[in-house]
Structure formats: structure tokens, C-alpha cells
């Protein structure tokens, strides 16, 4: 083992590794504090060739390694739990190429999502993936978790935004699939094996990404509604009114908004009266699309809407989005939160919310439901905050009990227990309750074939 460590350090280069516990420590805990890991060595390679050498050595010596991007994951997929070596791709952060006419870009895995967005803007293009952690989250992590975000409704998940990838296999071989083709019908689409695999089948080192024209017009509205069914009906009406130009449609409960107003500086309620539910809707399109007029007419003529405000400037638009994007952060000061990242068919959301909230309230009287998220694509962050006066530790100790109840309901609605966060370690065994035996067999077969020595992020995604 000592010889293997020395070889790994050499492969990483003179500035490419650290045994300093203070430098390693921030990489060992995910941001909400649920998971605490352990590692004695942090590798920080700055090239694909270095990653290839590292994995070749790890595979030869049966040394487990855990890849990490921006450490913004929420299911423990990026955390080393058994003193594995930690591989950070933060130094591989270059934008290799931007092809504005071809509508594509090649970015290394360590480039932050915000940096990729900025590079697209400089080329008068749009990279539409948008998540709350985009300042820290990296492209490698986004690809490896198939990140979703607020614009899936119009642009799709990360999977739909990737044209090609560069990935290093467990044995050190490099698959250079950085093609920018829109059509390539030459057999198996191998890149899809690694998108969403959370570093268990190979380590993504770069990605070729789709770009889009910058919208000439964006229209953002905060809409007050009676209930989630009204939100579903409004989604359909706004899609029709805007010609399918909706790019975001985010559901928020009053309690979540109250948390934001109480704990997030420089926020204000833009509507005169409180409402049980809200939707943040945004449409985007080209010049002369008349989206503002279409949105305003649709909202003012709808009996579903009890009140609404349309942003008239970029400042007002940013203020409305801050209410939505701060919803996770605002739950922290209120105490412990049991969180779920689930999806169900869109038309089933009202019934699911009613049944799911009732089930958890029965288990934990006084619990405070804060369900919010991407209503337009069926993804709800189904969160529950500790009852007032209840002990945090006692409440969080019931995580598995509450999670099982929620996930059983999700399954009955033919939904998914992980809509966009992945499986990581949190749901690696939970998924066995809902995936078919055949699906699990194929997943395990892929893992055994591509990583026969189980060195890549062991214990995550699928148990082998």
C-alpha cells in the first residue's frame, strides 16, 4: 500500500496531492452536515493523462478511490466513507473550446457551472442548466449526477445537454467521445452509461455541451394560487398561451416563503396578501415573441389566479427568483429537515401531495411540510421541517421511517425516489425496494464489467 501511495502522488504531480488534514476536511462533509467522511489522501490532478495514470495504479493495486466535483451533492455520492483516496477534479477547470456558430462548448470536469454559463454568455449563447449551487457545482458533477434544475421543462436534464464526453475507465483507458455531432447513429451511445452514474463506472474529465441562442425576451411572474391543482391547470394554460415557451414553472408553499422572508436578507413579499400556494413561472423566447403580453393576458383572464406580479426589470426578476432559490437555505434556521427528491406524473402531483403530507403528519404530529420545486417536470422536493419545540436529533432519527412512507407512496404513483439528486449512498439499498430484479441485475453487470475490482466510488448507486 505504501508503494501504491507513493506512485499515486508521483502521478498527480508536485502540486497534485495533499495529506494535510485541514485541507482535506472540507471535502469530507456535505453542505447540510448529514454525511461525514474519512480520507487520508487528496489527489488533485490537472490533466486527463494524470487521471488515467492514477486510475491505472488504483486498479492494479485494488485501491479504492472516490471522485468529487464541487461537493454540492445531497445523497453522499461524493463522500469517501471508508478511508478511500479522494480525487478532486477542481484543477481541471479549463474551457477548452467554444463554438458559437456550432452551438457547442467543451469544458473540463472541474469547471464550475457558473463559469460555463459565463463563457456561453461571452459568446452570446446560453447554457441553460441552472441550479442553486451553480457557483460551486462543477460540470463533471453535473454530468455524473445528471443534474436537473429549474429549466428542465424547456431544455431537459443534463443528459439532454451533453453531446459527448471524455471519460477515464477504471483501468486507466481514456474514452475520448468529445464529439459535437447532433447525429451519430453508430451503435451503442456509450456516453449515456456514464451520465448519471456518479463516478461508479468511470470518471468524467470533460464534456461537450449544447449551447442555445440567448433569449431576447424573458418574462417572469409570481402567481398566487389556491391549491396545487390550480397550478397544474395554469401550467397547461400558460404553455398554450406562450406557444410552449415556458422555461420554468416552480411550485412554492406559503410556509416556505415565510421561511425565506424570515431568514434571507433583502427579500420581500411582492404580493399584498398571503396565499396558500405560489408558482414562479418564466417564459423565454426570441425577439418580437410578445411573451409579456401573452403572459399578462393569460394571468389576468384566468379564474385560477388569485393574484400575480410580473417582473418589469432584471432587478425585479432577480428578486422573484431569490425567493425560490433561497428556499432550501431558509429551512436551515428552522431546525432539522427530512428531505425527499421525488418525481411523479405531473397530473398526479396534487393527489400525491395530499396523501404524502397526511402520511407524514400522522407519523410526526406537528411536522411542518415544505414541498416545493419543479412542478413543470413533476419533480418535487418533498421536505418536512421539525415540529416547533421538538428535539432535532429525535426528529432526524425518524428519517428512514418517514422516507419509507413517502417512497412507498411515490412508488404507488409510478414515480421515482430520486428525481435529480441521484442515489449516492443514501438510496443505494432503498432502490432495491423499487427497481425490478432484472434492472438491478443489469446495473450490477455493468458495474462488474467496467469496474471489476470495484475501485470506483464503491458502495454507491448499486450494491455489488
Task: Describe it.
The chain has 464 residues and is an alpha+beta fold. It is built from 17 helices and 19 strands. The chain has three domains: 95-213, Uridine Diphospho-n-acetylenolpyruvylglucosamine Reductase, domain 3; 217-329, Alpha-Beta Plaits; 335-427, Alpha-Beta Plaits (2-Layer Sandwich). The strands form five sheets. The protein has a five-stranded antiparallel beta sheet with strand order 5-6-10-8-9. The chain has a four-stranded mixed beta sheet with strand order 1-2-4-3. Strands 13-14-12-15 form a four-stranded antiparallel beta sheet, sandwiched between helices. The chain starts with a helix and ends in a 14-residue tail after the last helix. The mean pLDDT is 96.
Overall 3D geometry? Answer: globular
Main sheet: strands, sense, barrel: 5 strands, antiparallel
Distance between the termini: 24 Å
Task: Report the CATH topology name of the largest domain.
Answer: Uridine Diphospho-n-acetylenolpyruvylglucosamine Reductase, domain 3
Brief rundown of the structure:
With about 475 residues, the protein is α+β, with helices and mostly antiparallel strands. Helices cover about 35% and strands about 20% of the residues. It has helices at about 1-10, 20-25, 50-60, 115-120, 140-145, 150-155, 160, 190-195, 230-240, 255-265, 290-300, 315-325, 325-330, 350-365, 390-395, 400-410, 435-450, and strands at about 15-20, 40-45, 65-70, 85-90, 95-100, 105-110, 125, 160-170, 175, 205-210, 210-215, 215-225, 245-255, 275-285, 305-310, 335-340, 340-345, 370-375, 380-385.
Amino acid at each position: 500500500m505504501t508503494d501504491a501511495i507513493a506512485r499515486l502522488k508521483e502521478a498527480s504531480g508536485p502540486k497534485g496531492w495533499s495529506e494535510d488534514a485541514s485541507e482535506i476536511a472540507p471535502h469530507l462533509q456535505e453542505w447540510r452536515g448529514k454525511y461525514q467522511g474519512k480520507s487520508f489522501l487528496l489527489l488533485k490532478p490537472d490533466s486527463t493523462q494524470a487521471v488515467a495514470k492514477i486510475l491505472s495504479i488504483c486498479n492494479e493495486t485494488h485501491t479504492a478511490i472516490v471522485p468529487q466535483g464541487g461537493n454540492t451533492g445531497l445523497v453522499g455520492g461524493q463522500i469517501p466513507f471508508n478511508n478511500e483516496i479522494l480525487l478532486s477534479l477542481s484543477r481541471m477547470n479549463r474551457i477548452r473550446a467554444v463554438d458559437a456558430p456550432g452551438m457547442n462548448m467543451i469544458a473540463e470536469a472541474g469547471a464550475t457551472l457558473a463559469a460555463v454559463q459565463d463563457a456561453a454568455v461571452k459568446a452570446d449563447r446560453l447554457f441553460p442548466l441552472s441550479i442553486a449551487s451553480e457557483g460551486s457545482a462543477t460540470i463533471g458533477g453535473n454530468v455524473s449526477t445528471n443534474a436537473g434544475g429549474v429549466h428542465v421543462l424547456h431544455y431537459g436534464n443534463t443528459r439532454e445537454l451533453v453531446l459527448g464526453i471524455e471519460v477515464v475507465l477504471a483501468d486507466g483507458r481514456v474514452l475520448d467521445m468529445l464529439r459535437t455531432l447532433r447525429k451519430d447513429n453508430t451503435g451503442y451511445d456509450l456516453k449515456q452509461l456514464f451520465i448519471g452514474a456518479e463516478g461508479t463506472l468511470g470518471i468524467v474529465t470533460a464534456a461537450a455541451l449544447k449551447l442555445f441562442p440567448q433569449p431576447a425576451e424573458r418574462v417572469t411572474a409570481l402567481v398566487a394560487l389556491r391549491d396545487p391543482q390550480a397550478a397544474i391547470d395554469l401550467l397547461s394554460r400558460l404553455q398554450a398561451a406562450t406557444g410552449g415557451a415556458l422555461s420554468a414553472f416552480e411550485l412554492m408553499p406559503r410556509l416556505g416563503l415565510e421561511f425565506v422572508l424570515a431568514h434571507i436578507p433583502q427579500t420581500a413579499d411582492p404580493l399584498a396578501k398571503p396565499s396558500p400556494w405560489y408558482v414562479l413561472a418564466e417564459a423565454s423566447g426570441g425577439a418580437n415573441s410578445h411573451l409579456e403580453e401573452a403572459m399578462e393576458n393569460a394571468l389576468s383572464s384566468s379564474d385560477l389566479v388569485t393574484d400575480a406580479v410580473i417582473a418589469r426589470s432584471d432587478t425585479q426578476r432577480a428578486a422573484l427568483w431569490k425567493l425560490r432559490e433561497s428556499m432550501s437555505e431558509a429551512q436551515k434556521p428552522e431546525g432539522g429537515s427530512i428531505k425527499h427528491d421525488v418525481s411523479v406524473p405531473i397530473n398526479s402531483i396534487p393527489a400525491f401531495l395530499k396523501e404524502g403530507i397526511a402520511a407524514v403528519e400522522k407519523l410526526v404530529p406537528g411536522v411542518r411540510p415544505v414541498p416545493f420545486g419543479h412542478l413543470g417536470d413533476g419533480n418535487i422536493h418533498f421536505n418536512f421541517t421539525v415540529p416547533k419545540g421538538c428535539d432535532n436529533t429525535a426528529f432526524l432519527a425518524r428519517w428512514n421511517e418517514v422516507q419509507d412512507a413517502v417512497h412507498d407512496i411515490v412508488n404507488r404513483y409510478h414515480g421515482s425516489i430520486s428525481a435529480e439528486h441521484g442515489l449516492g449512498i443514501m438510496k443505494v439499498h432503498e432502490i432495491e425496494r423499487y427497481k425490478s430484479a432484472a434492472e438491478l441485475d443489469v446495473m450490477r453487470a455493468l458495474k462488474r464489467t467496467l469496474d471489476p475490482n470495484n475501485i470506483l466510488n464503491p458502495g454507491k448507486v448499486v450494491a455489488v
